[in-house]
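Limitations

Structures in this collection are predictions, not experimental determinations, and the ligand pose is part of the prediction. Treat each record accordingly. The example that follows, with D-gluconic acid as the small molecule, is included so readers can see exactly what is and is not provided: the inputs are given verbatim, and the output is the predicted complex.
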Amino acid sequence: MFSLEGKTALVTGAAYGIGLAIATALSRAGARIYFNCSRQETIDRGLAAYKELGIDAKGFLCDVTDEEAVRKMVAEIEAEAGAIDILVNNAGIIKRIPMEEMSVEDFRRVVDIDLVGPFICSKAVIPGMIRKGHGKIINICSMMSELGRETVSAYAAAKGGLKMLTRNICSEFGGHNIQCNGIGPGYIATEQTAPLRERQADGSRHPFDSFIISKTPAARWGTPEDLMGPAVFLASDASNFVNGHVLYVDGGILAYIGKQPS
Ligand code: NAP
Ligand code: GCO
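Predicted complex:
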């Protein structure tokens, strides 16, 4: 029930980080992999990574906020491989700026990529999924789908919205045997969170790094590999009666008040 043999998967923003790990897991379960990024150098970086992994992935230069480009990409994939069975809305950015200093343009850009992008990509693949009689959409949410913190107003608003978009796609298309679920990663060691883990001048941990360690029962950051199994589960027949759910892969952060001061 966990096999993805014969399935076609599109993972957005999957040149490195979480997207690359998820696409690799789907490929190892049998899926054919397509991915997109907004910069040619990232596409090239991703293609080199997939080649190194022995995965014959195809990359598209496509910004998820560009509806025409997304529709063209999906049409090209469908012409080559048939309707897309699995869409992972992974592409995303974050801007860490105090709200009173954040421009409306910055706020809009984060929401555009992290929330409108998944809407555009889902809207593009759903007709094919309906024709095929099944589909899996996995939205990469966040701790910020549930919690706020200073400086990430746009990102939290977008990821909170993405949780509700997940539930709405579930509601609107569950009758077509389309399951739409979220994965809510905890704090994962990728390029996106590298600034939060930078060693201090004296060699000590970044204060935020220490904070996350104290908030995580496992006392460690997650890795992209920690998300591979949950992604295969939500992309496979094993989750055919799971719909509208956000699976938090956070090491227990959301369950834990935090390490008590010694
Ligand atoms: P990352 O290392 O910053 O990678 C982001 C990827 O998205 C890159 O491949 C990037 O390539 C692509 N991308 C960005 N804007 C795009 C656009 N407009 N159109 C198409 N592709 C675009 O991020 P990550 O840490 O792997 O995170 C991946 C996803 O997980 C994001 O949605 C993030 O919000 C979410 N997440 C991350 C964490 C974490 O702790 N790292 C935790 C929870 C959720 P280009 O720049 O070339 O487009
Ligand atoms: C931040 C981090 C987080 C992670 C992730 C947590 O600045 O707080 O970047 O937002 O990216 O979303 O689940």
